[in-house]
Amino acid sequence: MKVSYLYIRNYKQFLDLELELTYPKGHEKAGKPLDKICIIGQSGTGKTNLLDIIKKSTIDFSQQPKDSYLPFSEFVGKDTDDRYIVTKFQLATKYQADTLFTSEKSKITFESKQNDTLKYEVFEHEKNYFVSAIKIKMEIINEDNAISKNDKKRIDTAQAKINDLLLDANGDYTQHEMELSILSDVIKNIEKKYENLPIANTLQKIQKKNFIDRNIININESNNSWKLLKDNIDNYEREKEQYEKKLFREVRKNPKDAEKAVKAMEKWEKENENILEKIADDINSIIKKFNLELQIDEDTQSYEELIIKDLSNNTIIEYDDLSTGTKNLLSTFIPLKSYKPKDSIILIDEPEMSFYPDIQRQLVELYTTVGENNQLVMATHSPLIASSFEPWEVVELKFDKNNQIYREKYYDGENHIDNYTVDPRMLTWTGILTDIFDIEEDSNFTFREKKLMEYATLKSEIKQMKSQEEKVKAFEKLKRVSKILGIYNK
Amino acid sequence: MRKIDKSTILSVKYKEWVEGLEVDNHPEYNSSKNKYYHDIKMSLLYCQKGLCAYTEQLLCDTKYLDQANWDSEKYIKVLSIEDKHAIQGDLEHFDESLKSDNGWLWDNLFVVVTHNNCRIKGSKSIKPILKPDSPDYDPYKYLTFDSEEGIFGANGALDDAKREEVEYMIKTLGLNCIADDRKRQIKQWLDMKDMGIEIDVYRYVTAWEMTNNLESK
Question: Cα(A368)–Cα(A386) distance, rounded to whole angstroms?
């Protein structure tokens, strides 16, 4: 699922903002929703609110009481007809979902792109709303690794039947009401089954907290994802040990049952997943950037405990002693990587937080490779992050002279790739700051100007000197000035 | 990237050894274990005048490259640990595909700055159009240099197909990976020239020559 269009009318600071979020003409993906979006703009232009609007528009009706999902209450102005939010989503299936929100109603429309005659309108107050809701829910939580193949198949079959019924209903859902209700229960029950698994449940909580509910993580919170993961792994080891002990006691009583016990243990291991083994490679690929790696058990060549080794001195380092940036990256990536999102929208506010510029440069690539066919939406103040985006992927919000928010246009005339005049990928970091972030000067000019004048004067002074010896001596001073200014190499 | 003359092999013993190798018995390339590794590196550095074959960064002081450091067979100067640190660069296989069966071939070897060898070129495939010791290679024919940005590009006189090949090789050999450092160095020398101060062009020779439109020697 990807967001392809957004129109906001009289909501919070947005009085009239329209955002086309598809690739422009001339692009190989012309007309398709953007794979990644970078929202920039000075404080108060509503970057975080935009993320919030996208999040709230991906409604999960099935989890809400029927008549109460009214996510947008902060509309401004008096005329109720003129206060609304329209969002369009391109689903991974052939459907497009259009949502309309006012302060009084929420409406979702599904449209098949393949057949114009198919059109489903499902209103929140209608009985069949859950059908479409499940559809969206399945899009968001699609690839849950904890779901067995068999159950996945059952869900898919039920989903396919729902789709068929929808097609058949052609707008009149009453005839299939009972059947649709049963099918949706089938799906709900399967999902419920997994929600109660302790490991899957915790992971899902992490995922929901960090991923679906936007990425705001307080890394100093006691229940951060690292600690949750560590508890899970410790639990796994503890339960394994207990089960082993239990089996051993039985074998001591009946030594003939040894083979049976081995089989029982194998069965247990099969049923109880060692999460650490599953995500060790992913964690390693991230922490290597910080000169760290997970410690592997020398005897078994497997990862049994969540222990991090500092490669610079080969010592163990506690999670609490890791740098803020490392913690931040780990607590974001563990849930994301283990979740492997597919066809989902990933919203991240200020991804650059506490990262050294070198890591900032790699963040977009890291986030785009966590899953498959996702849409990455970032709100950022970092020129290093902005430099990874194509110009049409940048949404720059600005205030006009009446203090109204608008999107800065990066092209002249028609929206075609050839007509773009700005491209963050082609600029220097300074260039991004001046041309895109609209910083007027390319340095702290009060100080730099004084030094630059010194450089110019010294140069003209040396030029007028006669002897080589005198020039060389004065040049040493010029070199110092030039190095400070970054004109010569350090 | 200047033209390199590799016709002189000062490490005679290595030369005899490598020329005597049959197609079938060329030993496996294992840099740390071969007794000729150091000889090859010093002999190549002699041909490259102490500079990285691709980026022209300085790899060692020319005092290590005096002919007196070789006897009739090999490099004989005894190097202390400090000396070894002062001589930078790795042996690099221009055509990586020859590394497995013909890893010690003189013709395919250069000394390049470690960063370039490990992080940029790696095992990428090559196009022979930019090979520093090739008889056809001439930086003025294939390259252009913009001193304000410190960047090498393909010569505008080339046709599209050739341009593409040259651009691919500029990227593969990492000729622009030190663009900012080179830009500032050229700026310093231009300032010195402007002020009438003598210049020692100890690196980035091609870039400096092209900046001044001097003919390559």
Answer: 14
